[in-house]
Amino acid sequence: MEQFFLKLSIMLVPALMAITCHEVSHGYIADKFGDNTARYMGRLTLNPLKHLDIFGTLMVFIVGIGWAKPVPVNFNNLRHPKRDMIWVAAAGPITNFTLAALSAFAMRGVAAFAERVPDASAAQMFLDPITLMLAFSVYINLLLAIFNLIPVPPLDGGRVAVGLLPYRQAEAYSRIEPYGMIIIIVLVFFTNLFSYIITPALNLGVHLLAGPQSTLVFSVTQLLMR
Q1: Residues contacting residue 214 through CB under 8 Å, at least 6 positions apart
Q2: In 3-state terms, what secondary structure has residue 49?
Q3: Handedness of CA 94, 95, 96, 97 (dihedral sign)
């Protein structure tokens, strides 16, 4: 039980930040492009309680990937629905990539500073958990960004694909959205999607962003996800 709460203390804030900022970014961009549905429903807030999906949050700690309640967007309210849909959908992964980059930059700085601090000092006891939280933030944000780029609606990558396709093909492709979650479950659990695509892309992203601290990111996430 003590181990569980230790892991929770490291994972909770980065996971909530990643999921909350992802959803708020969709609503914020939609609001800028003419749809105020998210603002009207009080979803343009960084208060995680407004976005929390209990099961989706638990899945972060169980399998390493989770979700929040989707921010409502009425694409018909957008000034240019087909074009603007691309930016509204892409806002989520872009936000997560940005958070991953900022976390990696901060982690590298904190880790470099921690090397100059005496072991077992008060400063070291403060810096260690911060470093671990930043390392997990790099991982969870990259994973959310990459996973959401799978081109199957209702994932963001699927909606970007619908926006990019010609009208006839876009209309046909959008019809798979009611079955999208079933397709995603099949891809995740019954194919080698993670082994051949998501994990290599995630490893590459961690190496590019974390540099010499990439080993720390991998070791921290392996420890937390046991």
Answers
A1: 206, 207
A2: helix
A3: positive
Residue 12: which of 40, 72, 52 has the closest Cα? 52
Statement: the pTM of the whole predicted model exceeds 0.85 = yes
Task: Decide if 92 contacts 155 (C-beta within 8 A).
Answer: no
Q: Is 23 a catalytic residue?
A: yes
**Residue 70 CB coordination number (10 Å):** 16
How confident is the model over 120-139, as a mean pLDDT? Answer: 86
CB atoms within 10 A of CB 225: 15
Choosing from 2, 23, 115, 171, the catalytic residue is 23
71: nearest Cα among 128, 119, 23, 30: 23
What are 40's two structure tokens?
A: 């009207």
pLDDT at 85: 95
Tokens representing 196 are 């051949």
| Structural domain harbouring 101 | 2-224
Is pLDDT of 120 > 70? Answer: no
Distances (CA, A) of 158 to 14, 18, 45, 120, 173: 25, 20, 25, 49, 9
19-47: pLDDT as tens digits: 999 999 999 999 999 999 999 999 999 99
> CB–CB of 57/49 below 8 Å?
no
The two three-digit tokens of residue 216, written as one number: 């720390």
Residue 9 to residue 136: CA distance in whole angstroms: 11
* CA 105 to chain CA mean position, Å: 17
* Residue 74 neighbours by CB distance under 10 Å: 13
Overall domain count for the chain: 1
